[in-house]
Amino acid sequence: MSIAAVALTKNEMGTIGQNVKHLLSNGVDLVLIADGMSTDGTRDVLADLGPQVEVVDDSNEVCRQTGVINALLEAAGRRGFDWIVPFDADEFVYACGGGTIAEALAGCSQQVVAMHCYLHLDWDRRCTMPRFDKMAFRWHPGAWLAMGAHSVNGYHGVVPATDVLAIREIQFLSREHFMSKIAARLATLDPSLPDYQGGFYREFVGLSQEMMESRWQAFTAVETVFDPVPSDYRV
C-alpha cells in the first residue's frame, strides 16, 4: 500500500514545512504540491524536504482549486499510489486511534474515508464540533474530488468510513494572521465560481475594517475544548 498527499499552497511558509514533515513521519510516501508562485520562502522550505516532496507550478492568477487538485491526484494515481489524501498547508491529518496515517489506512477496508476537520483557535483549544469533512480515498481512474475535497465522485453508493483519519486545522494563528490571510485569499478568489462555492471567504467581500474586527471577535468566542496540538505540529 502506498499513500500520496496532495495540496495547493501559496505563501504558507509558516505551516507547510511542519505539515509535510508530519505527513512523511506518518508513513505518507509522496507529497505532491502545486504552488501558486509563492513569494515568502515557501518554495525554499519545500525544496529542503527531500525527494518525497514534489512541487509543480500553479501560475493561475486566481485559485482554480478543483482543477489543480484533481490534476495532482490523477498524476499520483497514474504513478501507482493507492491512497490519495488531500490537505491544506494549515490542515494536519492524523490517525484517530493513534499510530500513523499509514497504519490507519492499512486497517481500513472501505474505499473512502471522511476526515472530520476540527478548527483550532490556538495551539491548545479547538472547537467542539467538526467544521466539515474532507475525503481521502483509494484511487481509481474515475475518481475525482469536488470543490474543497468535501466529497469524492466516482464511488456511487459508497458510505465513507469515519473515525479513521481526522484533521487539526490551524487556520489563523493570531488576529493579524486572520486579517492578512483573508485579504490574500480574497485577492485570488476565482470570480467564475458559482455562489454556493468558496462560501467562507465570500462572506468577507466588501466588509469594512470594523466589520472584520467583529468577525474576528465572533470567530474566537465559540465554545472550545482543551486539546493541545502535539509539539511536532507547532511552529
What features would you describe in this structure?
The protein has 235 residues and is of the alpha/beta class. It has one domain (3-169): Spore Coat Polysaccharide Biosynthesis Protein SpsA, Chain A, CATH 3.90.550.10. The protein is built from seven helices and twelve strands. It has helices at 16-25, 42-47, 65-78, 101-106, 175-187, 199-202, 209-219; strands at residues 3-9, 30-35, 53-57, 83-86, 91-95, 112-119, 125-127, 132-138, 144-145, 152-153, 165-169, 224-226. The strands form three sheets. The protein has an eight-stranded mixed beta sheet with strand order 3-2-1-4-8-6-11-5. β1 (3-9), α1 (16-25) and β2 (30-35) form a beta-alpha-beta unit. It starts with a strand and ends in a 9-residue tail after the last strand. The relative contact order is 0.17.
Terminal CA distance: 31 Å
Instruction: Return the CATH class.
Output: Alpha Beta
- What's the Cα radius of gyration? 17 Å
CATH topology: Spore Coat Polysaccharide Biosynthesis Protein SpsA, Chain A
Topology:
Layout: E1 3-9, H1 16-25, E2 30-35, H2 42-47, E3 53-57, H3 65-78, E4 83-86, E5 91-95, H4 101-106, E6 112-119, E7 125-127, E8 132-138, E9 144-145, E10 152-153, E11 165-169, H5 175-187, H6 199-202, H7 209-219, E12 224-226
Parallel strand pairs: 1-2, 1-4, 2-3, 6-11
Antiparallel strand pairs: 4-8, 5-11, 6-8, 7-12, 9-10
Labels describing this entry:
235 residues; alpha/beta; Spore Coat Polysaccharide Biosynthesis Protein SpsA, Chain A; eight-stranded mixed beta sheet; two-stranded antiparallel ribbon; 12 strands
